Amino acid sequence: MGNGALSFGAPARRSGESPVDLQTRTAVVTGAASGIGLALSARFARAGVGVVMADIDDALHRRASELAAQGAQVTAVTADLTDPEAVDRLADTAFDRLGGVDVVCNNAGVLGPIGQPLWEVPLEQMRQVFEANHWAHVLMARAFVPRLLEHGRPAHLIHTASMSAFVVGAGSAAYAASKHADLAVARSLRADLRGTGILVSVLCPGRVDTPMVQGLAAPRGAGGDTSVSAEDVAGLVWEALGSDRFYLFSNADAALRLRDQFDDVWRHVSLPSPSPEEELWPAPTATTVATRHRPSTWKR
């Protein structure tokens, strides 16, 4: 958590109606030894939710013990989430200990090399970032989703991406690319699971006051102007549980930063700019569709 202290008080309230009858009794949180993952674990614990906290960091068991000393029902599991067998064991442990899983926070991640142009970043470092930020999330989904479907009760998957899934600055190729990939995974899961009772959201925080970014100067064009606490982000997630909110943005400048990005996209679309009375994305004409989807253009 932002200041290193674990706050443990009365259960928080969720607001808004849910499209599914999600009863948040159990949760799994990865990257739970610090930062957003620890704040999520504490937020769940305050509400009496049983939590399996997973991380590779040695601090995990100390943090879990601090929560348990305050009455939380937590289980700490040391796991290398880039190892498929370790992820499967984590899933088995979670369902064995909790009896069922209502929320999975796929939160583990690393920052990796920042400030170097793409051609100077060692390839091995780029691979390590993708292993932690992308492939670990893929492995978690593959391990947990089939079990969730088998259990047949409502659940919610929260994938931690970043504003870097939309806004890319100089010297951040490895991190930003991995977060773009994770956004695509979350969007695909949302489509795959529509109608099953399993909801999917993607968490896209801007700068958050966590140990991962302390002392770090944001890459040019990527930092944003606001900062929030890990507890603020955990509160955002808690409020969204059971709702159909897919994109979860934590920072006040998110709308402006997104508008700048999509304005840039719009400038490069080979269509005239819309007037205020027109739709933002006009429907393609029949001629356009026929041209773009001519069978001879498809290759396998």
Automatic annotation (TrEMBL):
An example molecular function term from Gene Ontology annotations: oxidoreductase activity
Record field: compositional bias (Basic residues): 291-300
Keyword terms, alphabetized: Oxidoreductase
InterPro entries from the UniProt entry: HdxpentlteDhPtlF, KR_dom, NAD(P)-bd_dom_sf, Sc_DH/Rdtase_CS, SDR_fam
Record-linked Pfam families: adh_short
Residue span of region Disordered: 1-21, 273-300
Record bears the keyword Oxidoreductase: yes
Residue span, Ketoreductase domain: 25-211
Signal sequence segment: none
Source organism, top-level taxon: Bacteria
Keyword Signal carried by entry: no
Coiled-coil residues: none
PANTHER family registered for this protein in UniProt: 5-KETO-D-GLUCONATE 5-REDUCTASE, ALCOHOL DEHYDROGENASE, PUTATIVE (AFU_ORTHOLOGUE AFUA_3G03445)-RELATED
Family: Belongs to the short-chain dehydrogenases/reductases (SDR) family.
Protein name: 1-deoxy-11beta-hydroxypentalenate dehydrogenase
Native species: Streptomyces qinglanensis
Classification lineage: Bacteria, Bacillati, Actinomycetota, Actinomycetes, Kitasatosporales
